[in-house]
Amino acid sequence: MTTNKYYYSGKFGIERETLRVDSQCRLARTPHPFGNDEHITRDFCENQIELVTPVCHSVDEAVKVLAELDKRTREELAKNGESIWLYSNPPHFDSEDDIPIADFIGDHSSKRAYREVLQQKYGKKLMLFSGIHFNFSFAEEFLRELNTNNEDFHTFRNELYLRLYKQLMVHSWLLVLLTAASPYYDASLDKDGKSGIIMSEYSSLRNSRRGYWNKFLPILDHRSLKTFAGSIKKHIVTGSLYSVSELYLPIRLKPKGVNSFENLAANGVDHIELRMFDLNPSAPLGIDSRDLEFAHLLILYLLSQPDFDLTPELQEKAVRDHQNAALLEPDTKLLEHGTEVIESMEKHFSENEKAIEIIAFEKEKILVRNHFKSSIVSASAK
């Protein structure tokens, strides 16, 4: 493990999506009550609430800011008899008429046009899935100390984040295994007019093959940030994607400011975004801070792993593994691989007591999943 004093430093941010519901736990029909507040906004639909923390200097600080935003939100919603639906899968709704597109106007009207395109392409129901996005960037001092060959810093930084992106893409399944929390859903998600709670075959519907994915698998070129941005541009130029925001993969490389391939290519990577976390209904804020702490440790661990070529075949496998991890009964080999990665992380962070505690918390989840899987196999053999 590195002894760099900036190793655990960085910038952290949380985006939490939820839905607004009325006293009957039906989707709220009132306008979004927070105006253009950049920290309490919405994503696709008007009856959604997205809390966006400012940049923080630790997971703990980001969670505390999220708690403050959550409190403000709940107090304001309570004035209209509304509350937050703290589940990744939506409550019962009658039809897509209950899902009004976010009413962005004025300077933000282009956001509405984009959402109208999404409605036509994917339908509104898909957009009701809610979750947590975790944003992270390394401390600049840490990156400068890593740059031992005194390469152009801009280039070095971009190449490092691209290498990390590839590692996270092929390991995104692990975070799904550890944080999936949405096996139940209302039948209205299947068909208008239906009702009743269904136990699905998935532990996370939004991460499963039924969840947030493009109509095709966007194959990207990871040789450099320039070719990476260029391969996104090709999908946009051909009309396969409306914009970079429609790239529904579990990991994103983000520039500072406007999220566009032009900005990414010109100004480079500012931070990396992990998009696979389900809302945890047993956690008051919808997220257990230990899960985000583990994600940070996973990022640091993967940074130490060797680079590789993320071929089209490996990109397809990464998505298959991600969707497999979203099953209630994922493949045994995936669970075994999860144990291997976690045990390797234990060795990597062996000198950090807090890290070992966080890793142990997640390791227990894998052990429980393995036990559950073996119990099912044993019962079926009788």
Main attributes of the structure:
seven-stranded antiparallel β-sheet; glutamate-cysteine ligase activity; 13% strand; EC 6.3.2.2; metal ion binding; Creatine Kinase, Chain A, domain 2; alpha+beta; 382 residues; ATP-binding; two-stranded antiparallel ribbon; globular
Structure description:
It is an enzyme of class 6 (ligase). Keywords: ATP-binding, Glutathione biosynthesis, Ligase, Nucleotide-binding. InterPro entries: Gln_synth/guanido_kin_cat_dom, Glu_cys_ligase, Glut_cys_ligase. Residues 7-238, 243-320 form the Glutamate--cysteine ligase domain. One of its GO terms (biological process) is glutathione biosynthetic process. By secondary structure, the protein is of the alpha+beta class. The chain has a single domain (10-325), classed as 2-Layer Sandwich (Creatine Kinase, Chain A, domain 2), CATH 3.30.590. Helix content is 43%, strand content 13%. The protein has helices spanning 59-78, 109-122, 140-146, 153-179, 225-237, 261-267, 289-303, 312-325, 332-348, 353-381; strands at residues 10-21, 40-41, 48-52, 83-85, 131-138, 184-186, 197-199, 251-254, 271-278. Strands 1, 2, 3, 4, 5, 8 and 9 form a seven-stranded antiparallel sheet that branches. It has a two-stranded antiparallel ribbon with strand order 6-7. Strand 2 and strand 3 (48-52) form a beta hairpin. It is globular and about 60 Å long.
